[in-house]
Amino acid sequence: MDRNTSQGPAAALYPPIDPFDQRMVDVGDGHRLYVEQCGNPDGLPVVVLHGGPGGGCSPMMRRFFDPAIYRVVLFDQRGCGRSRPHASVRDNTTWHLVADIEHIRNLLAIDRWAVFGGSWGATLSLIYGITHPDRTARLILRGVFLMEQRELNWFYGGGAGQFWPDQWNRFTSLIPPEEHDDLIAAYKRRLFDTPAHEQVRYARAWASWENALASVRSQGQSGEPNGEYARAFARLENHYFSNAGFLEHDGWIRQNLHRLTGVPTVIVQGRYDMICPPLSAQLLASALDAATLHMIPFAGHALSEPGISEQLVRSLDRIAQTRTDTLRFDD
C-alpha cells in the first residue's frame, strides 16, 4: 500500500486505517483493557506497547505498519486510555503488564510476535522479551529507557533542566524549595494525597514538563494537556518511577539481557533526546548480539519526529520484505 506523500511528521507513514477488531478484555484484579487489531488478520503479528506509563495508544501508532503485511495488536495498559478503571494504580505493576501481554497473546492465539515499543514502551518490551524470549520474535525499540536511577536523576533531578531552565522552573515552582531534593516523591504526595481537582493541577504540570521536551523542534510550548489524560499519565508515571519500575534492583534490565541472545533488535534513537538520552540506547546496543542501532542525527524523543518515523517504517518494511512468503515468524 502506498504511503502518505505529504510533508511533515506523517510523510513516512501508511494511510490511516480502522481496526478490524475492538474489544474490552478482562484481565482480572478489577481491570479491563481496551484491545484492538488492525491490518491483515493473517499477517505478521506485532504488539505495540505505548509509552508513559500511562500514555495510551493513538490511531497514529497503527500507521507504522504495512496493513497488507502486518497484524497489528494495540492495547491501552492498565489505568489509562480506554482501559478501566481510569488512573488506577491498584494491582498495577510492571509484572501485571507483562502478564497482560501474555493474556492478550493467548487470547488471540498468537504463537510468537514482534514487539514494538518506545520510551516506557521500550522498557516494557525489553522486560517482556527477557521474561518470554520464546514468544518474542524480534524487538523494534525507540527512545530507549532502561528504568535506571541515573535516567530518573537526569529528568527529575535537574539534568534536563539545565537545558530547559524556563520549563524546569515551571515544573518545580509548584513544589516548596525544601522538597526539591526529591521531586518524584513531592509530586507523589500531591498526585495521590490531595482531592481530585488538585491532582489535575499537579498532573498537568508533570505532563507539560515532559511534553515540552519531546521534540527537537520544541520551543517549550506544549499546550495545556487534557485534565483526564494528564491525571492518568502523571499518576501512573509517578507510581512506576516511585517504585523503580517494580524491578528487583537498579540495572535489572541490563543484567538480564543475555536472555535476549539471538533476538533480532532494531533500536531507533534521537541524537538530541532530552527525555531519554542516547547513552541508554548505546549501552543496550552494545550488550545485545543481534541489535542494530540507528542514531537519528536531528531528532528528539517523540515518535512523531520525522527522522524517527522514517527509520521505524523503513525498518518494519525491511522485516516485511523477508516475510512476504509465509507471513509468519517461524525462525
Topology, pairings included?
Elements: E1 21-28, E2 31-39, E3 44-49, E4 70-75, H1 94-107, E5 113-119, H2 120-131, E6 136-144, H3 149-156, H4 165-172, H5 183-192, H6 196-212, H7 227-242, H8 252-255, E7 265-270, H9 279-287, E8 291-296, H10 306-321
Parallel strand pairs: 3-4, 3-5, 5-6, 6-7, 7-8
Antiparallel strand pairs: 1-2, 2-4
What are the key terms here?
331 residues, alpha/beta, Rossmann fold, 8-stranded mixed sheet, globular
Structural description of this entry:
The protein is α/β, with parallel strands linked by helices. The chain contains ten helices and eight strands. The protein has an eight-stranded mixed β-sheet with strand order 1-2-4-3-5-6-7-8, sandwiched between helices. Helix 2 (120-131) links the parallel strand 5 (113-119) and strand 6 (136-144). Helix 4 (165-172) runs antiparallel to helix 6, helix 5 runs antiparallel to helix 6 and helix 6 (196-212) packs across helix 7. The longest helix has 17 residues, at 196-212. It is globular, with a radius of gyration of 19 Å. The relative contact order is 0.15. The model has no long low-confidence stretch (mean pLDDT 95).
Number of strands: 8
Oligomeric state: single chain
Beta fraction: 15-25%
Q: Which structural category do the helix and sheet elements fall into?
A: alpha/beta
For the record, the CATH class of the largest domain is Alpha Beta
Give start-end ranges of low-pLDDT stretches: none
**End-to-end CA span:** 26 Å
| CATH fold-level topology of the largest domain | Rossmann fold
CATH superfamily heading of the largest domain: Alpha/Beta hydrolase fold, catalytic domain
Shape: globular
- Helical content stands at 25-40%
How many helices does DSSP assign?
10
Main sheet characteristics: 8 strands, mixed
Radius of gyration, in Å, reads 19 Å
- Second CATH tier, the architecture of the largest domain: 3-Layer(aba) Sandwich
